[in-house]
Specification:
Length: 457
């Protein structure tokens, strides 16, 4: 027989398992099992196994090893997260990169995917939603699933949803767009090029430019923008993706903004902002690059400027032999500071207004008995207004909390460098900075060690 000091019982952090550890499980006898059951009663475990059930669990453990660590004796019932129901596409409309020709070579003139669809074409099928279900922890307490932040799929222009078959069809020919959980097919404007002759272009759909977008041009689309040539020092904004077959040469004046993804062969001296990610084949040079997705230059290099991604950064070479100052930041939401500033300004304004109202109410209630019926009505209205302002403040604080949680969920706190990391590069991950002073050969996966407060690889 062993004594009660030779085994340990504990509940895991999630309170969903009772864990048992013992140096020599083969020495556990009937009296010790009584002690284990008694200990679980003291811990107020709800579903305590019978002695026979406990014996069977320990017997199976004995067959594997005399020493056991964190053997599960009791399990809670896990909760089920709700799901709005995702879509299964009939083909990969959104594949990144370039097509491979018959000889196995990458064809930089052809994209790997085509989002063009025909009128009446089946786009995909939506899975039915899954309702949430509560769980029960080992103490018998109900565990509710976290609030669902996933947005429901919505049908935009140019598509139709068959509720019986749960299939989605295109109702117009055009370019498929999937942004912010909205499925849409955009009608398309096609042009040979955009220049002084064409003037600026603003279109409530997608734009296809067969050749180049020249200096000083302004191109805006409520859908995607696809450029068959290159982009000079132009101003481009798309609700969908921006895809450039060749390069973006901004000459420190060009700006590309996309609520989706930005992809190009190369990007030089440009300001790039992408909500869902950046894909560049060859190089990013001296750019102000900001993405709420990842930045992928797996086959090329990033030299100079600053590249900030909420997702991960993947690059073949970071920096250059000349030691050009280059900042790479991963897992950081570039939009968050401005968002927080605006929300806090709104909160301060509402709270200041509420304090003024409460002060006015206080001065009136001091002489409540002397107030007329109309003045009492004014006090009531002011109190209702103060309550309304407080609700608005709480809603704004909720917006901040939700935004931070969403940003944290989407953050990928790592920088992957495939081949070379040159001196002159500065890495920043989770607020921790490391300046590179010597050459490092890859592959490198840089992450933040929060306990040591340094970046390691």
């Amino acid at each position: 027989m062993i004594t009660k000091t030779t085994f340990d019982l504990k509940v895991d952090k999630a309170k969903m398992s009772v864990l048992f550890s013992c140096k020599d499980v083969s020495q556990i006898d009937s009296e010790t099992m009584d002690e284990i059951i008694a200990r679980m009663k003291e811990m107020r475990i709800a579903a305590i196994p019978t002695k026979n059930e406990l014996d069977e669990t320990l017997r199976q453990a004995r067959n594997k090893n005399d020493e056991v660590k964190d053997l599960v004796l009791v399990k809670g019932e896990p909760y089920t997260m709700a799901s709005v129901g995702g879509i299964e596409w009939v083909r990969d409309f959104f594949a990144e990169g370039w097509a491979i020709d018959e000889a196995g070579r990458m064809d930089y003139r052809e994209r790997a995917s085509s989002r063009m669809v025909k009128n009446g074409e089946l786009i995909g099928k939506i899975a039915p939603p899954i309702p949430p279900a509560t769980g029960v922890d080992v103490f018998g307490r109900i565990v509710r699933p976290p609030k669902l932040f996933e947005k429901k799929l919505a049908m935009g222009q140019g598509v139709e949803f068959n509720e019986k078959t749960r299939e989605v069809f295109a109702t117009v020919g055009g370019m498929l767009r999937f942004t912010d959980n909205v499925i849409a097919v955009d009608n398309i404007c096609t042009m040979d090029g955009i220049n002084l002759k064409t003037g600026n272009i603003r279109f409530p759909g997608s734009i296809i430019v067969r050749k180049d977008v020249e200096d000083m041009a302004v191109v805006e689309a409520d859908g995607a923008i696809e450029v068959g040539g290159g982009v000079a020092a132009a101003q481009i904004h798309a609700v969908g993706d921006v895809s450039v077959r060749y390069g973006i040469s901004g000459r420190e004046k060009g700006r590309v903004k996309s609520d989706g993804k930005v992809s190009a062969l190369f990007v030089m001296n440009a300001d790039i902002e992408a909500e869902e990610g950046v894909f560049v084949r060859k190089e990013i040079v001296n750019c102000d690059m900001r993405s709420r997705g990842s930045v992928d230059v797996e086959g090329g290099r990033i030299v100079g400027g600053k590249t900030i991604a909420l997702g991960e950064i993947i690059v073949r070479e970071a920096g250059s032999e000349g030691g050009v100052s280059t900042l790479l930041v991963a897992g950081e939401d570039y939009k968050m500071p401005e968002f927080m500033k605006a929300k806090k300004m709104d909160i301060d304004r509402l709270e200041q207004l509420r304090r003024k109202i409460l002060n006015k109410i206080g001065s009136m209630t001091d002489r409540l008995k002397l107030l007329s019926a109309k003045q009492r009505e004014v006090v009531t209205e002011l109190m209702a207004k103060a309550d309304e302002l407080q609700l608005q403040v709480e809603e704004l604080r909720g917006d901040i909390k939700d935004a931070v949680m969403e940003s944290d969920r989407n953050a990928i706190n790592q920088i992957i460098i495939k081949k070379m990391l040159f001196p002159g590069v500065t890495l920043r991950i989770q607020g921790i900075t490391r300046k590179i002073t010597k050459l490092h050969k890859g592959p490198i996966i840089a992450r933040a060690d929060l306990e040591e407060n340094k970046i390691i690889f």
